[in-house]
Amino acid sequence: MGHLLCALTILEVVGTLGLIIYALLVEAGNLVDLPNKRIGFYNFCLWNETAGKLQCLEVSHLQAMGISWLGIALARVCVYICSVLSFFYPLFLANVRCVDKVKGWRVLLVILTTKTLLLSGGLGIFLLQTSPWINPSDFTGGFLALVGTLALILLQILTGAGRGAAAAWGLPGQWSSGSKELHCTSLV
């Protein structure tokens, strides 16, 4: 059972990193990327009928449309801080075996909860600001990848809570120096 949880934890971390890299780097933070509109953390482009092409709007135009640039910037900061924490999370995970197990798992749960709050808060703020211009059917791969990232982070919280409880009760399957699972942490 312990090896299964270890493998699940590693798969969750790899999946989270893959999805967040795809959403923020490959898709460039665009949640909507259609021929007639491109809306993301760095773009707000709508179709211009007169010019016959996408026109990216400046901050002054966004403010005239009722979109708070401060809200968009805050959403961007929240989502990108979550990505930074995701990149360093494997180091925290590998460090758990070197410290007090119960405290280590508590720290991991705090980090995961922080990532959840940042990502869901950032997405929520962004969607509240841009909802008049986005239909649910407009979302493309970037948005779906961020929602998948959020789901995997929630799954990591459940897995981490189980591992932390096992460590607190001294049950088999915890990562400790006397456990066969010691090698599992070196894979992270």
Automatic annotation (TrEMBL):
It comes from the Eukaryota. Pfam families: TM140. The keyword rRNA-binding does not apply. The chain crosses the membrane at residues 5-25, 67-93, 105-127, 139-158. This is Transmembrane protein 140. Keywords: Membrane, Transmembrane, Transmembrane helix.
